[in-house]
Write a structure and sequence with these properties.
single chain, 837 residues, five-stranded mixed beta sheet, 45% helix, elongated, HPS3 biogenesis of lysosomal organelles complex 2 subunit 1, HPS3_N, HPS3_C, HPS3
Length: 837
Amino acid sequence: MVQLYNLHPFGSQRVVPCKQEPAHFCCGQDVLFVASAAACCRVEVFAVREQGRCEALGSFATLGAVLRMAYSSAGPSTHTLQLELDEFIVCQKPVELLGEESKLCEIPITLESTELPTEDTERFQVQYLLFRCFTPDQSPFGFCEETKLHSIQLLPVYQTGIWLCMYVLCTRKLLSLFCFFSLPDVGYLYSVGKLVELISTYQYSEKSEQAVLTPQFLHVITSQNLQCFTVRCSAAAARDEDPYIDTTVKACPPVTLDVCTLRMQLFIGPRAICHFKNHIILLTKADTEDITERRKPTRRMLSRKADSIKSRGNSESEPGWNLYIINTVSTIQLYREMVDYSRTYESVKTESCIHLLSEAHLLVRAAIMDPHFLGSDEKEDLLRAFRESCAFLGDCYSRFDTKDYHLALPYYRMSGLSMAEVLKRLVSEGDEIQTCERGFIFYLTHSLNEDSSEELDKESGNKVLKIFYLADPVQLPHILCSPCMRNVCPFTAVNYLQKVEKMMPSAVLTLTKAFLALKMGDLLMYEREMDSCKETTLTCGFVGQPRLLWQRQTGIVTPTEFAVHLKETQPALLVAAAVALHENGKMELEEADTFFKMLCSSSGNTTPQLLVDFWEALLVVSSQEEILQELLLRVTSQYVWRISEKQLPDTKPLKTTEDLINSCSHFGLIFPWVTSIMSVGCSSHQDFCEDISRLQSLLCSQSINVAAAQPVLEPLAGAGSVGLSIRVLCSSRRGRYEEALEQLLQRCPEAAVSYAQQELKGDTQALWWTKMLPELCNRTRLSGNNCPVLISSLKETLSVVAMELELRDFLSLLPEDGTAAFFLPHLLHCSQRKLLT
């Protein structure tokens, strides 16, 4: 389907003052070369000035008739041969081969040198892009006109703007390449970038003579018209530049838009056309019947003989040809006309309005992609027009009931308009809001649900409330939690929520009402709302809308007034909600750190107890090993810091060590030998017994990676009985039982037997008699009767050894200088056990 609009892409036109009849022409470097018809063998040269004015520079003769001309900056060259009949390939059916497959056409291509001094043939490569063959009617009269290929062109599109190379603006980077070719009735536009694909098909209203492609338009000449079609090059190139352009942030009209005819300009006998900068150069040659038609006298000419003779004389002197330079209007001027024209469709809310605005947008986008854009006088105007076109498209997708309503969001974002400005565009002052289309609701929902620094004023906020109450009331609680709605009237908001609650009650709605009650200072209402739901239900409500507790402002997590109040009144609920948020992917560990530190006004590296409570609570529920090890290291570090620095928590912990042991497998029961060590130690850490017991409990479990925690535990190395218990626990967890025994025998022998009973089992049980028994014997002998603890430990060890070892093995362990009377009861016991077995 071709959309036809009567716009005006063509501006002024000027006649090139050729002395001879033109046959061929080409442009380059602001110079027009015109080759005369066959008999003249001459080329005229003209300088092309502003607005298409031409100034003759001179002419030169050629040895023969010019058959073809082309201009290349690097040297309607070209190597043309008359094709013989055997060079045609006749297929039985149409063939189209794209990309690499086009090599299958088996047509060899060789590069020929022009032998110019600037030529670097080693850099030239041949790449097959497209092979297409049309099957003509098989008839004795040759090929039919419908299959005649008359125009073919490659169009490069470069990366937006110009790249910076050191100190100068230079090097253009090729972004996309397009291939266009045309038959008399139809034209085909292909994208030949990473993929080769057909992006547009142009059905002409009548047989075409020639066509020329530009980044913005396709110009086609027929027997009577110069036609201007829109092209999709900028849409395809935009997607090559940014494959993720079609998102909630950015958008671009699709490549598959209906082809649009902007203008059908009447000319008599168009024969050839070429494009040069912002000019169309058109050669017209009138047939005999066309000239005769112009010479027919009118009634006015018959009424006056003198006028009739004068007119006839003028027409006889008129040439049958002309070479025109047609100045295309500026992008901005045509863009304005397209926007104005689109308003004729606005009242009926048709797709034609969107289509025409999309064409205007692509027109501007193509101009911005021009390599000379950065140096253009229209740069600022084009950027302004780009943002304006985005705003217009956003308006259409917001107001119209269209399947692509979601595009309102990215177009408004690209326009740079604030939410308040969009509201003013779509909701007039004083108008009663009745209904809003899906596009507008979609835009508002996404904009309000994001972390924006924009704050709507009270009037705009209340307007938004009414819009959602009418269009999507279930979204009202979520909308009210947006930072943008901070200035909304809480009384009005509660009134709307109460109406919604009767139809669709929810935990989020209840919490939102409580939040608003705090803003109004109504504590009775707040308590009533909070008491109406169980704590688990409220926790689910916070997961449903995290911004009740925290919001982002310029990328920083900030606690809300609700969170501050919960910290003072219901810290357990606050921590439970934060844990639920983390487990549901709504809050990262680092975000929780920032949240609790800001909430508790912690300065520097100080960790508030509420954050430690959060870590401990998270240990209870988390199942991710990586998160668990991170949490274990964090709580361990915090316990060590408090014990070593003798710092008490800033608030009372929510759980005791016993609570944690009972609810969390990562906190183990404290071993009796650890308790034994602590019972005989000094009382310098008596005020920090909770942190000490939590740390010991962690090390008594099998969860924490002791090797990773060792550097964190280092500050407690010399901390009396606390340090001893930690060192022995670490040695045991790492399998260094002999080292652990050595430490206990030196520092706390009364705990050695208890340690052995706990730790020396299975493969490590031999340490009882190979390590502990000799050490106790030796230490007891050296201390004499001055250490009853050693004697007691030795007796308990002997009792165990006597039960476990054979008599011969037991005897071999006894010291040679031992007193027989001391060991006799154990020897007797050992021998009796042997007899019993």
